[in-house]
Amino acid sequence: MSSYIDISQKLVSSSELELGMFVSRLDRPWEETPFIFQGFLISNQEEIYQLQQYCKRVHIDVKQTVEIKHNRGQTSTKKKTRYIDTVSFEQELPTAIDAYKKTRDQVDTILTSLRMGYDLDAVKIKSLVKECVQSVIRNTGALSWLTQIRNRDDYTAEHSLRVAIMSIAFGKELELLEGELENLGVCGLLHDVGKVKVPLEVLNKEGRLTAEEFKLMKQHPSDGMKLLQSKRDVFAGAVDVAYSHHERVDGKGYPRGITSEKIPYFAKVVAITDAYDAITSNRCYRNGSSSLEALRIIYDDRGLHFERELAERFVKFIGIYPPGHIAELNTGHVGIILSSPQDHKLRPKILIVRSPDKRPSTENIIDLNVVKKLKNGKPLRIKEIHSDGAFGIDLQVYRDKGLRVWQDSPSIDQPNIQSYA
Asked: At 334, phi and psi to the nearest 5?
């Protein structure tokens, strides 16, 4: 007796859904979903988002699927959203600090619980990410500024949060829809979840890993995929990103060695933000590299490791004076870069915290886009940028007190700068 295979039905991951596909069956009962009809043609992006929220896999009726020229649901769609910051950095920072602390604590709890074998609260994760997305939409710089605070002793949780925030901010630059930003944030937050299966002595080892230890570490994408597949209500795209964020567009990545066309769009985005944060982070066994060095590596690896267009967009997005870095002016003053306007990235706003002799000084905010020259006619500019800890400046101290003591501070006046020029 021959078996019959219905070739008109195709089982696909919900992250691979496209407009024009006809959904014939779900991986759960229809009545547990908001869909009215048992079988329908995907006609808009919102239906893709809903399917991804409720299902990991769906059956597609190939015969009833129609061709609609549109990008994949998980990729950047033709419909874009151009964002404009609606509040200032100073206004948003207190809210961003609250969101960062809350999410940071929850991420630590989530990873610890998973390591102990407990379940994943997908609803809680989405709620936390949504709060971060709203903060980034209001002002890109505030939450991004907090990602520069690095803790050597608790890398994994903070790294996951930083990658999520940077991915959201980069997604905003790419003009992704708000729902896409939320999904991308979940992907960033959970991209390294497979590391809960890596022994702590390997994960936190000081120094170079042995061949066997490196083999264990390289299993985390597969472990992350399996772990998330077993959890209900997790965004399906997060499964793909956990599995694919160490793939390379030239096919030389792991675990599968797939090439660009098979790597999900969100995984390509997270691969870049993941690499940037890893390169610039201090670890127990080494100091992080500068932002400029990280951008150079990403730029040089465009078309090989990273998607060319995304890598080039990311380098322009971060810029040479990213928020949260420490800036030394040509007057000798030292401050913390607060924000860089998109149209004037070489003229950021800076909180001055050190005098030219590098001693603590009265904290004042100066906008280099407003104060461009000294009274002697010489340009006022940034001489060099440094990472957290330079000149004894601890960014966490400034995060903890927020901008309460700065918001009413006058901009540093030109005579004070002039006297040291």
From this structure: -125, 140
Long-range own/partner contacts, residues 77-83 (CB < 8 A, 24 or more apart):
77/45, 77/176, 77/177, 77/180, 79/45, 79/177, 80/175, 80/176, 80/177, 81/175, 81/176, 81/177, 81/178, 82/175, 83/137, 83/172, 83/175
Give one word for 80, left, alpha or beta, with left for phi > 0 and alpha for psi -120 to 50.
beta
Structure tokens at 98: 């609250």
Amino acid (one-letter) located at 152: R
Angle, CA 101 vertex, CA 95 and CA 106 arms, to 5°: 125
Out of 99-103, 327-331, 400-404, which region has the weakest mean confidence (pLDDT)?
A: 400-404
pLDDT digits (tens, 9 = 90+) for 343-370: 677 788 899 999 999 999 988 888 888 8
Domains annotated on the chain, with CATH: 9-61 (no CATH), 89-318 (1.10.3210.10), 326-418 (no CATH)
The CA distance from 176 to 273, in Å, is: 16
**pLDDT mean across residues, the chain:** 84
Closest CA to 266 of 304, 230, 240: 240
Q: pLDDT value at position 36?
A: 64
pTM score, whole prediction:
0.77
Angle in degrees, 0-180, between the axes of helices 178-190 and 236-244, rounded to the nearest 10 = 50
Longest dimension (CA), the chain: 95
Instruction: Tell me the torsion sign for CA atoms 13, 15, 20, 23.
Output: positive
